[in-house]
Specification:
- The complex is a heterodimer of chains A (about 625) and B (about 375).
- Chain A is of the alpha+beta class and about 625 residues long.
- In chain A, the strands form 7 sheets. In chain A, strands 2, 3, 4, 5, 10, 18 and 19 form a 7-stranded mixed sheet that branches. A 5-stranded antiparallel sheet of chain A has the order 12-11-23-22-21, with helices on both faces. In chain A, strands 1-8-9 form a 3-stranded antiparallel sheet.
- In chain A, helix 14 crosses helix 16 (about 400-420), helix 14 (about 345-355) packs antiparallel against helix 20 (about 525-540) and helix 16 (about 400-420) crosses helix 18.
- The radius of gyration of chain A is 40 Å and the shape is elongated.
- Chain B has about 375 residues and is mostly helical.
- Helices cover about 70% and strands about 0% of the residues of chain B.
- Chain B is built from 15 helices and 2 strands.
- A two-stranded antiparallel ribbon of chain B has the order 1-2.
- The chains are: A alpha+beta (about 625), B mainly alpha (about 375).
- At the A-B interface, helix 1, helix 2 and helix 3 of A face helix 5, helix 8, helix 11, helix 12 and helix 13 of B.
Chain lengths: ~625, ~375
């Protein structure tokens, strides 16, 4: 066989030699040498290229080793935050106001979905979706802000386990535990508690501490102010995942730490009661303890459903709230700035006595109007016919305007501005909520700066009866009243009572000693004014609130205020929005005050007709329903 | 006589096998199997299948080693034209996932382009075997035609990678036949001139592949994803690697094609630079051994053929490794003796068999 082929070869060679002639026949020696040279060159190239390759691999494996190690770790390790359980918010008696609860959602992260079409097809199979569900999913896909699509909300573990049988169809599907917030009295407590929401860009530049892994954060109210206490610390799971994002194993796990429970000074029962009292009205009520600054009730009406926000409010609902004429989102108690009207008279009276501008028996005559030099129009008293001769006590009780016009004129704006400051007018109370307004206690300086104008004597007169430029928040009025009721030794108004860390079992109470709100008040002067405030309610002949139903068990003192929004002609009632604001400040019991109540009803009409009865009912309710229970405990 | 004096002669001489080349290659094969076992997470199915392919390859190698080189030379035109015919058939009847590269004969399914990897060098060596060397220009043109016709047919499938590889092995053959320097320059001009023409004929995915080669990071999940993950696998391996069975990139499926085209990266991840150094060294040694056989061969046909085949195998190594380390575009070329897959394994063992035939029959040519 072999020889046959060899013969064939030789025959071919012969034929070839015959055809081409001897000259062109290969020279075996030369061919071999030439081939050897080329083979060596080729081997050299092989060697050189190998070195070049190795150098390149060296670059990747040795020089860039760290870089690629990081990338490899990034590839395989996912850190999944574990959301902590947010602390509950409770009232002073331990009634829950806001609580956290878990829901299970089935979602799919968009980054894991390779084909949207297949995903929709398969999810239709697994979940037996109808067209509207598919449309919803499509919308969620389109929404660039969403990182995931939600397949099913509020499901249970059991249901997910059943669905997991089909996980091969939908490998992207995963169960997430969502901690949700529920508010028990969503509207009544809305302006106290605020609400939580998704963490946003703004939250990073605030005082709120944003911890790695947090997704929700308190947005306003107590939820915001005590965010750091309530939120707890997120934990994490370090997971090893493969390229399909399937979890291979848990490398490391740190549990989340539950947030502290926060107890508020609010009394839930009283809060709900006071909120209901403003039904159909717009306004604000503050009930607080004058001695320790505990705010028992903090109401701004109307409120809004904070549960809507906790669940993630739809833009439709949100716009509805924004467009509502009653402005439910507006926290009147905290940021509403009203002319305090006659409620300012007791405070003005005290500083005038203390300064010796008048004494308690000083009498001014009220003829129904006060004439100021260079002013054509007289300054009218609310009582057309005048109050005749009035001293401070009867001026407060009857709310005589002329007395205070005169007093303001002789005091001057500088004295009013300087002395009234001690009751907190024009300053924040520093209640534990963000966004508080400071009101306005006007001065010459303020006017020249903000209005580029000199102060006119007539303006002093207006300030003297709590009108003109004078503005105060409901909270400021309550705070000032608390100072009156406590004889000058109160505590900064606050909502925080204590917090309890359930993990460490640590209780931290509100520090009353660190938050003292003390001023000096001359006892005699205080006595005169407090008695005058008692007369407001009990002096049948002149007391502006003496018509209201009394409380059997105790006596209380107060002061009405009717703040003019606009000069309404007497006898005509204008549109509701132009009616006067009705105000009433009070404390009870008169002898040893335990609560302060401040009521403002926006455009409610007169303080004595509208605000005073509300305050009376609150005082009655408190001593009938709230205090006895506390005493029993 | 040198051959008889070989002390390891016994069985290997009986089987007409070159023991040195065989041992080097089997070491590579072993590393390949080990890596395969690792990337399949300890599941030995792939390894088992691969072992069968290796055995088939070895049988083919031994069978081919028995055949006298003259027979290859005589049958090469017939083989070449059968190969061409099959390629033409593939254009009409071919099947495949994204490109019609396969011929389905019901009982066996294979890529005719794979055959051409051997048939083209064979044809050129055979063509030059009875021509005067260095080749005249006329014979050069014929050789170019021998290369270009199958290359174009394969490029049409489309399988640009294989087309380029076959063209390159043809060029190696021409180089080894002793081409003149002037002709080399001429060839270069021709190739450079052909590039724009080739580009215009390419499919979009081929173009994007080549473009992604120049900036792989910009398109991480597209065609550049493979390269990025491959580099991460290699780079995270470091000097000594993550250890056998400890590669995270390959085991967690971040490294795509970790048992086929990217097995080198999987290997490099677990065995590090030292492992890579050893592997490259083995390939270089195998190539040198092949070149030594080529140098010692006694006629032009044997010299050109054996040299071309071993250099072609090394070229495949270069292309594969170059691809996974980012020197070359990702064209989808397996790593000889290591990548999982039947056809390529058979091809490289067949080439090895022919080389061994040349080695073991040289004594008979010497007179």
């Amino acid at each position: 066989m072999v020889s046959k082929h060899r013969n064939e070869t030789i025959r071919k060679r012969h034929r070839f030699e015959e055809k081409t002639g001897w000259e062109d026949i290969n020279d075996p020696v030369r061919d071999r040498a030439s081939h050897k040279l080329r083979a060596l060159i080729a081997s050299g190239i092989v060697f050189v290229i190998s070195i070049f390759y190795l150098d390149h691999i060296f670059q990747i494996q040795i020089n860039d080793h760290e870089l690629y190690t990081t990338k490899a770790e990034d590839n395989r390790i996912r850190v999944r935050p574990i959301e902590p359980i947010r602390g509950n918010i409770l009232d002073r008696n331990g009634i829950t106001l806001a609580e956290s609860f878990d829901t299970f959602d089935i979602i799919a992260k968009k980054e894991n979905i390779v084909s949207e079409r297949n995903f929709l097809l398969n999810s239709q199979k697994v979940f037996k979706f109808e067209k509207k569900d598919i449309d919803r999913l499509k919308r969620e896909f389109k929404n660039g802000r969403l990182k995931e699509v939600t397949l099913k909300k509020n499901t249970t573990m059991e249901e997910f386990t059943k669905l997991s049988v089909d996980q091969y169809l939908l490998p992207e599907m995963e169960l997430i535990v969502k901690s949700n917030r529920r508010y028990i009295f969503p509207e009544a407590t809305s302006h106290v508690l605020g609400y939580t929401g998704k963490l946003s860009e703004n939250d990073f530049n605030s005082t709120v501490e944003i911890k790695e892994g947090m997704t929700t954060v308190g947005k306003v109210g107590v939820e915001r102010f005590y965010q750091n206490l309530l939120s707890g610390t997120p934990g994490f799971e370090k997971l090893e995942t493969n390229a399909n994002n399937e979890i291979i194993r848990v490398l490391e796990k740190k549990s989340a730490t539950r947030g502290s429970d926060v107890y508020l000074t609010i009394d839930a029962k009283l809060q709900n009661y006071t909120y209901e009292l403003l039904q159909g009205q717009r306004g604000s009520i503050i009930v607080m303890d004058p001695h320790n600054g505990d705010i028992l009730s903090f109401v701004s009406h109307p409120g809004y459903d904070i549960n809507l926000f906790a669940r993630g409010i739809s833009s439709k609902d949100y716009n509805k709230l924004l467009k509502d004429k009653a402005k439910p989102l507006f926290n009147r108690a905290l940021v509403g700035q009203y002319p305090p009207g006659s409620t300012v008279k007791p405070f003005f009276g005290i500083v005038a006595l203390e300064d010796g501008i008048i004494d308690k028996s000083k009498v001014f005559a009220c003829t129904g109007a006060y004439k100021l030099e260079n002013y054509k129009r007289p300054f009218k008293c609310w009582k057309k016919d005048g109050h005749m001769n009035v001293n401070l006590s009867s001026a407060v009780a009857s709310s005589c305007d002329v007395f205070f016009y005169r007093l303001a004129e002789i005091s001057g704006i500088d004295m009013i501005h300087d002395k009234l400051q001690k009751f907190g007018f024009g300053q924040k109370t520093y209640v534990d909520l963000y966004g508080e307004k400071r009101g306005l206690l006007p001065s010459r300086e303020w006017k020249s700066q903000s209005r580029q104008s000199a102060w006119y004597p007539g303006e002093t007169l207006n300030v003297g009866i709590g009108q003109g430029y004078f503005l105060a928040t409901p909270l400021q009025l309550a705070n000032a009243t608390a100072l009156l009721a406590s004889g000058g030794s109160s505590v900064t108004p606050h909502l925080f009572l204590r917090s309890i860390d359930r993990i460490k079992n640590e209780v931290s109470n509100f520090s009353y000693s660190d938050n003292k709100n003390e001023i000096e008040i001359d006892t005699d002067s205080l006595h005169v004014v407090n008695e005058a405030m008692w007369r407001v309610v009990y002096d049948k002949s002149i007391g502006t609130a003496s018509h209201i139903k009394k409380i059997d068990s105790l006596e209380f003192a107060g002061k009405t205020g009717t703040a003019q929004v606009y000069n309404l002609d007497k006898g005509k009632t204008g549109t509701k929005s132009l009616q006067d604001h009705a105000l009433f400040i009070s404390f009870a019991p008169f002898e040893s005050p335990e609560i302060v109540v401040s009521v403002i009803v926006d455009n409610g009409g007169s303080g004595s007709a509208v605000a005073a009865p509300i305050a009376r009912n609150i005082i009655n309710y408190y001593f009938e329903n709230i205090k006895p229970k506390v005493a029993m405990q | 006589m040198r051959y008889a004096s070989n002390e390891f002669g016994g069985i290997s001489s009986l089987l007409k096998i070159d023991l040195k080349l065989f041992v080097i290659v089997m070491m590579i094969v072993f590393l390949g199997l080990a890596t395969l076992f690792s990337v399949s997470n300890g599941d030995n199915t792939l390894m088992f299948k691969q072992s069968i392919r290796i055995i088939i390859g070895l049988v083919a190698m031994i069978l081919l080693a028995q055949i006298h080189p003259d027979n290859f030379r005589l049958f090469s035109p017939a083989l070449y034209f059968i190969g061409l015919l099959l390629l033409i058939l593939t254009i009409f009847f071919g099947v495949g996932k994204s490109a019609d590269r396969w011929l389905d004969f019901y009982f066996v399914r294979f890529q005719p382009s794979e055959l051409m990897k051997i048939f083209v060098p064979l044809m050129i060596a055979s063509f030059y075997s009875d021509k005067s060397l260095p080749p005249k220009f006329k014979n050069l043109v014929v050789a170019v035609l021998i290369i270009i016709v199958p290359a174009l047919l394969i490029a049409k499938q489309p399988d640009l990678g294989t087309a380029i590889l076959i063209t390159s092995s043809g060029i190696i053959a021409i180089f080894l036949s002793g081409i003149r320097l002037a002709h080399i320059f001429l060839g270069l001009v021709f190739v450079i001139g052909a590039i724009p023409l080739l580009w215009s004929q390419m499919y979009d995915y081929q173009k994007s592949r080549i473009l992604s080669f120049f900036s792989p990071d910009q398109d991480v999940l597209g065609s550049g994803y493979h390269l990025v993950q491959s580099k991460i696998a290699l780079g995270s391996g470091g000097l000594f690697g993550k250890g056998y069975m400890n590669g995270t990139q390959s085991k967690l499926d971040f490294l795509p094609e970790n048992h086929t085209d990217f097995i080198f990266s999987a290997y490099g991840e677990e065995f590090g630079f030292m492992g890579v150094l050893i592997l490259i060294l083995l390939y270089v040694l195998a190539t040198f051994r092949g070149m030594s056989i080529s140098i010692k061969a006694t006629d032009n046909f044997s010299r050109i053929l054996s040299g071309t085949l071993i250099l072609t195998i090394f070229l495949y190594v270069l292309v594969n490794v170059g691809m996974v380390i980012g020197i070359l575009p990702i064209v989808g070329a397996p790593l000889p003796f290591m990548s999982y897959g039947g056809t390529s394994m058979l091809t490289v063992f067949a080439a090895l068999g022919i080389i061994m035939s040349i080695k073991s029959h040289q004594r008979l040519m010497r007179k």
